[in-house]
Amino acid sequence: MGALLRMDRITKTFPGVKALDDVSLEVAEGEIHAICGENGAGKSTLMKVLSGVYPVGSYEGQITYDGQPAAFGSIRDSEDVGIIIIHQELALVPLLTIAENIFLGNERATRGVIDWPETFRQTEALLAKVGLRETPGTRVDTLGVGKQQLVEIAKALSKNVRLLILDEPTAALSEGDSQALLDLLLELKGQGVTSIIISHKLNEVRRVADSVTVIRDGATISTLEAKGLTEDRIVRDMVGRDMAHRYPERERRAGEVVFELRDWNVGHPEQRDRRMIRDLSMQVRAGEVVGIAGLMGAGRTELAMSVFGRSYGRDISGQVLMHGRPVDVSTVDRAIAAGLAYVTEDRKTLGLILDETIRRNTVLANLGAVATRGVVDDGRETEVAETYRRSLRIRTPSVFQKVMNLSGGNQQKVVLAKWLFTDPELLILDEPTRGIDVGAKYEIYSIINDLSAAGKAVILISSEMPELLGLCDRIHVMNQGRFVGELTAAEASQEAIMSLIVRE
Question: The domain 3-239 is classified under which CATH number: 3.30.310.80, 3.10.20.30, 3.40.50.300, 1.20.1250.20?
Answer without folding.
Answer: 3.40.50.300
